[in-house]
Amino acid sequence: MFWFIGKTILLYFITIMIIRTMGKSAFAQLTAHDLAAIFFVISLATGPVVTENLVQTITGLVVIGLVHIGFSRLMLFNRLNKIFVGKPTVVIKHGSLIQENLKGSHFTLSELLSEVREKGYPDISIIDYGIIEPNGGISIVPKQEIAPVTPEQLDVETSYQGLPIAVIIEGRTQHQNLELINKDEQWLDKKLAAAGYPDRNQIFYAAVRDGDDSLLIDTGAGSNRNGQNK
């Protein structure tokens, strides 16, 4: 049994290092140890189907779970984090590509351009910095001249809009969210009736802004309506 536990831990760390060498594109949005843990859990969980050794499988799952938790804690140490997780890689600087860094991340130019377009930047010349994060995601910092202008920069006063809190999802009332904004079903029914919806089952989605209690109603038919604020 101890040999099995030791072998499991050893293979877990070897898997992490192999995944790390595959480059960031291999595990977009997942760190190497996350992917390794998922791989081992799936492999071990399907083990009994082949070997019927349930005790060994459960032991392996527990070991991987504990090792993964411990490994995540160790990643708080900067040196270990750089070795096992990696560090951000700048691939676009002041509108120009850094080919060497891109190659080291195992991202192709086509993949990078696709990711950048998805973030709303079809032209790399307007990007100040493009950074591939350790989890494979891409962060974009646009050049100052094309960055969105804020109301503060224009010296324009804005009112607080509030966070939309879902109170009906697929026809089901979200009681916990109603309690969160200090409202009840009677209040909701009154608001819906005032907007022309006497039956909650007609509503596919409804949300209340916590700033002014205004109601957004969507029946799922391709249009929505703002309820009257009362």
From TrEMBL:
<feature type="transmembrane region" description="Helical">
    <location>
        <begin position="6"/>
        <end position="23"/>
    </location>
</feature>
<feature type="domain" description="YetF C-terminal">
    <location>
        <begin position="77"/>
        <end position="208"/>
    </location>
</feature>
<dbReference type="InterPro" id="IPR007353">
    <property type="entry name" value="DUF421"/>
</dbReference>
<protein>
    <submittedName>
        <fullName>Uncharacterized membrane protein YcaP, DUF421 family</fullName>
    </submittedName>
</protein>
<feature type="transmembrane region" description="Helical">
    <location>
        <begin position="57"/>
        <end position="77"/>
    </location>
</feature>
<keyword id="KW-1003">Cell membrane</keyword>
<keyword id="KW-0812">Transmembrane</keyword>
<comment type="similarity">
    <text>Belongs to the UPF0702 family.</text>
</comment>
<dbReference type="GO" id="GO:0005886">
    <property type="term" value="C:plasma membrane"/>
</dbReference>
<keyword id="KW-0472">Membrane</keyword>
<feature type="transmembrane region" description="Helical">
    <location>
        <begin position="35"/>
        <end position="51"/>
    </location>
</feature>
<dbReference type="Pfam" id="PF04239">
    <property type="entry name" value="DUF421"/>
</dbReference>
<dbReference type="InterPro" id="IPR023090">
    <property type="entry name" value="UPF0702_alpha/beta_dom_sf"/>
</dbReference>
<keyword id="KW-1133">Transmembrane helix</keyword>
